[in-house]
Specification:
Length: 207
């Protein structure tokens, strides 16, 4: 019996056309390789995206932290200025001596400040450590529950570098300011920043 065999040329054509035994497998293999390459590029792109997001979040976090520190210091400076202004106005309007005391972190009221009145009848809030003046608007304070207040600066987030005590005294139509401790400037420190608020003998404030 004669055996019929497929011509070599037909077999070769089958390989070229993808109909031979190797044609379909060849395309399948090439397709799998292409899919793997495409998947590989996707993973790389995803990794790059994750890294970029992480870097962006890190930068945003640093910026937010720096902004919060700046805001706390600005708030503390503004509060010290308002406390000095309030003391000046009390002395002018009420005709009493007014003490403003700032404590450092080693003081009786650590990193707090208070406004004290000394009345002509001899009542001395400063000597008795009984400041009855409530905090100015926007300023928080500790209280003993008996109507006495010790103010926090930036809600307790900023420290006073050195203790300072100022005396405001009315003389006729003028108020003079002097220091009984630490000079005429209050230096604030916090989060690597330092700011100084000063007042002169005429009650003019600078920072």
């Amino acid at each position: 019996m004669n055996k019929r065999s497929r011509p070599i040329r037909d077999f070769a054509r089958g390989r070229r056309e993808g109909t031979g035994s190797f044609g379909e497998n060849g395309r399948e293999h090439r397709g799998m390789s292409r899919s793997r390459r495409e998947f590989g590029f996707t993973v790389i792109e995803l990794a790059i995206t994750v890294v970029l997001i992480g870097v962006s979040l890190g930068i945003a976090s640093l910026y937010y932290g720096r902004t919060q520190k700046d805001l706390s210091m600005k708030s503390a400076v503004s509060e010290v200025e308002s406390i000095m202004e309030r003391a000046y106005n009390i002395a002018m309007q009420e005709g009493v001596e007014v003490y403003v005391q700032f404590w450092d972190d080693m003081g009786t009221h650590a990193n707090r400040c208070a406004i004290y009145r000394v009345y002509p009848d001899g009542t001395d809030e400063h000597a008795d450590d009984e400041p009855t003046e409530p905090p100015p608007s926007g300023v928080t304070a500790d209280t003993d529950g008996s109507g006495h207040y010790w103010f926090k600066l930036a809600n307790g987030g900023i420290d006073v570098q050195d203790p300072v005590t100022l005396l405001f005294r009315r003389d006729g139509s003028l108020v003079t300011v002097s220091s009984t401790e630490g000079g005429m400037s209050v230096t604030l420190v916090g989060s690597g920043q330092t700011r100084t608020v000063s007042i002169n003998d005429r009650g003019e404030i600078s920072s």
